[in-house]
TrEMBL record:
Residues 1-57 form the HTH lysR-type domain. Keywords: DNA-binding, Transcription, Transcription regulation. This is LysR family transcriptional regulator. Pfam families: HTH_1, LysR_substrate. Belongs to the LysR transcriptional regulatory family. One of its GO terms (cellular component) is cytosol. It comes from Brevibacillus formosus. InterPro entries: HTH-type_LysR_regulators, LysR_HTH_N, LysR_subst-bd, WH-like_DNA-bd_sf, WH_DNA-bd_sf.
Length: 298
């Protein structure tokens, strides 16, 4: 049985006779007859009562009810096979938040390249706001970031929780204090990510409980905040996963909710993803679990 035989059978039903089916498919009538006979031989049943009207047998009627599903499934399998072949080469456009570029992506790409050496990966680094817009513009396949506000066309699959950390230079007055309240931070300027940074927005939410607001310096490149902290008497606000030098220390500050969900962000309309994307995401999730374990140990 092959796709041509199934298509011929369906066309006979649609056209009513072998002759009309042959004309529709641009086959010789003998070709149509031979294809039906091959089907009947393979199934061990008669599909048609012999005659000019091509009347179905009882078994033929049952088969006719399922032939559309069979053809649809056959086409689906062929398309999947072609897709797999095409995925040997191609491009993945992946959006990521800044902290993953130094800790996670190099390891993930090393593993991925061993299985898909001919797939080009373009990594776009940004915050949740910019990566969300890139997804909406169809310039990214998916992104690893936080959950954007008021964008129902995008769906976040949470992968891990990123904790907000506060950092100071090792000779800062706060460096030796066991714990601090948010109000105590008013003594120094805070150096935070840009206005649309989720860490910045979460911090502003925490400070909204107080009548006064702290003084901010905003820096869009989060990885540069430790350098500012070393030069300026201040408190930096960064994700816990950010790599820090020995000249900077983390201080304990009380927050009602210091965690931000980070995950896989895609368009809500996407139901299936390719095996290439699945493989990349598998390695990514594995490494994120390893990262979370390392963060807990520290």
């Amino acid at each position: 049985m092959d796709l041509k035989e199934l298509t011929t059978f369906r066309t006979i039903i649609q056209e009513g006779t072998f002759t009309k089916a042959a004309a529709k498919l641009n086959y010789a009538q003998s070709t149509v007859t031979n294809q039906v006979q091959r089907l009947e031989k393979e199934f061990g049943i008669k599909l048609f009562k012999r005659g000019w009207d091509s009347e179905l047998t009882a078994s033929g009627k049952i088969f006719a009810e399922e032939v559309d599903k069979l053809i649809h499934h056959w086409n689906y399998v062929l398309e999947q096979a072609k897709s797999l072949q095409k995925e040997e080469i191609g491009i993945l456009n992946i959006g990521v938040i800044e902290t993953l570029t130094a800790t996670v992506l190099p390891i993930v790409l090393h593993k991925f390249r061993e299985c898909r050496p001919n797939i080009t990966c373009n990594f776009v680094v940004g915050n949740t706001d910019s990566l969300s817009q890139a997804l909406l513009d169809n310039s990214l396949d998916f992104a690893v970031c936080g959950e954007p506000y008021n964008l129902p066309s995008l769906h976040l699959e949470p992968l891990y929780n990123e904790k907000i950390s506060f950092i100071v230079s090792k000779d800062h007055a706060f460096a030796l204090k066991p714990s601090l309240s948010l109000e105590e931070l008013y003594e120094y300027p805070l150096i935070v990510g840009g206005k649309n940074c989720l860490y910045h927005m979460r911090l502003e939410k925490e400070f909204s409980r107080y009548s006064a607001k702290p003084f901010y310096y905003s820096v869009s490149q989060i990885s540069s905040i430790p350098s500012f902290v070393q030069e300026i008497p201040s408190v930096g606000v960064v994700p816990t996963s950010l790599l820090l030098s020995s000249d900077v220390v983390t201080i304990q500050v009380e927050m009602s909710d210091p965690y931000i969900p980070i995950g896989l962000l895609q368009k809500s309309s996407i139901e299936n993803i390719s095996s290439t994307k699945k493989l990349f995401l598998q390695y990514l999730k594995e490494e994120l679990l390893n990262l979370q374990g390392r963060v807990r140990l520290t």
